[in-house]
Amino acid sequence: MNNRHIDFYSKAKYYDIAFRFKNVPEENQTVLDTFHRHNKLDAKSFFDIGAGPASNAIEMANRGLKSYALDYSSEMVAYGIDKAKKAGASVTYLQGDMRNFELPEPVDLAAIFMDSTSYLLTNEDVINHLQAVARSLKKDGMYLLEMSHPRDVFSVGKSASTEWTEKQDDIEVSVKWGEDGDVFDPIRQTTMVTAKLKFKTPDEEGEIIDQSEQRCFTYNEIDALVKASNCFELVDVIGSLKPGIKFSNEKTCWRMIPVLRKK
Fold this sequence. Notes:
There is one protein chain. By secondary structure, the chain is an alpha/beta fold. It has 2 domains: 6-151 and 216-262, 3-Layer(aba) Sandwich (Rossmann fold); 163-214, N-terminal domain of TfIIb, CATH 2.20.25. It contains 7 helices and 13 strands. It has helices at residues 6-10, 12-18, 24-39, 55-62, 74-86, 123-135, 219-229, and strands spanning 45-49, 66-71, 91-95, 107-112, 137-145, 147-148, 163-168, 171-177, 184-185, 190-200, 205-215, 232-238, 255-262. The strands form 2 sheets. Strands 1, 2, 3, 4, 5, 6, 12 and 13 form an 8-stranded mixed β-sheet that branches. Helix 3 crosses helix 4 (55-62) and helix 6 (123-135) packs across helix 7 (219-229). The longest helix is centred in the first third of the chain and has 16 residues, at 24-39.
């Protein structure tokens, strides 16, 4: 696997500010409601994969779920542990590779947010990842993957903004995800994505420019890879972590979120 924008993610606090627009309670409620709809019971434990600042894991913990998180960036893990402590949340945060990891115990429900699956560049990466997740789930456990909409694969529309600025107190952070000159490989379905993070505080300012390959997926690919993993069944696909949005080509549907149940 490539460098996965390691420099970009090393600025954990600024990253957290940049993505503070996320409606974490709404996202988590949609994840929990989806689990309940398919299993007719409530999840008691949760695993946040590619967790970054661990915002979703922390909010789940504060709901009373036993909460775990995993990220490749050691800076993100350290930041997330500190953030959980400040929030009074009990989160077990592990540093590791999403293709091969072990949880201390299996959980009911897992999710990966913000298209972090894009760093799984090969079919082998995806299958190894799915099998690792399955090992971390209880029988009939579920896994939701928030992925880019397939329209972005074929450039028939733009599902999400790729440039924005956020402010918190006296800190300003700007992100630009992708440049016009970023090269797309149509064979591998990967793009060498340029990520820029600018930050400005009373004490410092700077800019991180980082490049990494990211893969885009079609629906049929995901369906085939889930079958090839031989550990999940695809039971549903939803179109957003906002409630009530079906997976379709409608503009309100801006994500592809496969819902998997462990066999």
